[in-house]
Specification:
single chain; 135 residues; alpha+beta; Cytidine Deaminase, domain 2; five-stranded mixed beta sheet; 5 strands; 34% helix; 18% strand; binds tetrahydrodeoxyuridine
């Protein structure tokens, strides 16, 4: 599948402009391309109770499910308010893994990289199934 990285970065930038960031001032936008070619986007939303802050990627994963997309995420662009790529935090790498798998392409300043490279030896549902005690 061809990926229009410029369009994906632009969609992330538009979402970043709508971010609610009265505390950190760091706007973040995330845009994703789904396997059925939908482009979805989300922004970060902060809260006076700082720990409740929602990263842009959290919103993106929620939007993925709410959109009714039939396939996983295949590519994501995450940008700060300046429009330049921002690497996802650890929690969001884990969320993206479940939404797109290790082959999910993540935009970086040096070009797209697979999520596997950003989150090696990840914990997944397979591990959970293999190690869970039977109830
Ligand atoms: N943030 C994201 O939205 N995504 C990330 O992957 C890293 C951090 C947001 C959360 C918070 O609103 C601000 O950036 C500063 O941490």
């Amino acid at each position: 599948m061809t990926i229009d990285w410029a369009a994906l970065r632009a969609a992330a930038g538009s979402a970043a402009r709508r971010a609610y960031v009265p505390y950190s001032g760091l706007r973040v936008g995330a845009a994703g391309l789904t396997a059925d070619r939908q482009v979805i986007a989300a922004c970060n939303v902060e809260n006076a109770s700082y720990g409740l802050t929602l990263c842009a990627e959290c919103g993106l994963v929620s939007t993925l499910h709410a959109s009714g997309a039939t396939g996983p995420l295949v590519a994501v662009a995450i940008v700060a308010g300046d429009g330049m790529p921002l690497l996802p935090c650890g929690r969001c790498r884990q969320l993206l893994l479940e939404a797109g798998g290790g082959g999910l392409l993540v935009d970086t300043a040096e070009g797209p990289v697979e999520l596997d490279a950003l989150l090696p030896a990840a914990f997944t549902g397979a591990e959970l199934r293999a190690r869970r005690e039977s109830r």
